[in-house]
Structure formats: C-alpha cells, structure tokens
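Amino acids appear as letters; backbone shape is given numerically. Here is one record.
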Amino acid sequence: MHTHPLAHPHDPHRITRTGWLRAAVLGANDGIVSIASLIVGVSNASAEPRAVVVAGVAGLAAGALSMAAGEYVSVSSQMDIEKADIRRERRSLHSQPDIELEELVRIYEARGLAPGTARLVAVELTEHDALGAHVRDELGLTEVMAARPMQAALASALTFSAAGSVPLAAALLAPQGSVAVVVWLVTLLALAALGAIGAIAGGARIGRGIVRVLVWGSAAMAITSGIGHVFGIAA
C-alpha cells in the first residue's frame, strides 16, 4: 500500500488537539479555581470544617455536571451552525453552480494563485468534490476543526473533576485553622502545573502558559476570599 511521506512524522501538528485540548484545559482550570475559591471563601466565612467539606464536595459535583452540560450545549450550537451553512452551500451548488465556481476562483486568486491556475484548481476540485471544496475553502471547515459536543463535554467534566479534587483533598488534609493557606498554596502549584501541561500539549511557551493561568486563577481566589472574609465578619 502506497503511503505519502510526512515532512515531520515525529512532530505532528498540534492543531488536531484543538477540540479536546480547549475543553480539557477549560475544565481543569475551572475545576481548580472554582473549587479552591469556594473552599477559601467558605473557610473565611466559617471555621466549621464540615461546612468547608460539604461546600467543596457539592461544588465538585455541581461544577462537573455544569461544565459537561455547558460544553455540550455550546458545542452543539456551533455544530448546528456548521450544518446549516453546509446545507445552504449544497443548495447553492445545485441552483447556481457557475456563481459558486467563480467564488472558488476568487478565493484561490486571493491566496496568491495566478488567475489561470486559480480557475484550473477550482474546476478540478469542483469536478472531484464540489461541496467538500466549498466547505473547506469558503466556510473554513475541516474534519480536524469540526465541532464534537460529546467529546468536549466528557473532556471538560473529567478534567474538572480531577483538577477540582486537588484543592478539595488539600482542604481535607490541612490542619484545622490553616485550610485557606494550604488550599492557596496547593492551588497555585496545581495552576502552575496546568499551565505548563497546557503549553506543552499546545506547543506554546511554558512560561507564558504558567503566568497566564496563575494570574487569572489568583485573581479569582482573591476576590472570593475577600467576599468570604466580609461575610465572615458580618456574621
């Protein structure tokens, strides 16, 4: 069987990871930050250990389900839009093929092909797979970038649960009276690790990934901690 050579077989393109990686990083980041923020806020408002544990467990369960549902609904909406555009393109190819061909020619000319070459490419691709050519080159949709609701939902829910269990475990193991401090420290380490993992998986700079996650995660925890402190004093 004939196979096509690859320019870099040992270093594949990372764009193929876009769908699940986005949902996984989002779920993990939300799991760490939201559960840690919840625990820190509750611990500042109430010194009762049971209240902290109950809040953390409830937040973990509710958050995982919410992330899964949110990802599924949002990505399903994206998929509906993609399908609607493809249906419209199919109808247009049937009713006005000449206009659609000229659209392809202009697209290829805009990308740098000479007019004659652009027309030749457009004609040959139209004869081979007209709908596929328009979906790819006019709409910008590919199999790699296609919306996958269930994949996004599962990736988000699983990573939320796994990452959210880190600050919850820290709270359970922390000495009484120092829950907030321990959760803060553990969460910052977890966020740094998440930033590094996400950067490596996406082929980005590790330092930038770590800083980005730490800054926003710390800000969220600080705000929640302040709110919990205010309500604790008020109580």
Q: What stands out?
A: The two ends are 74 Å apart (CA to CA). The helical segments are 18-45, 49-95, 97-110, 115-137, 149-173, 179-202, 206-234.
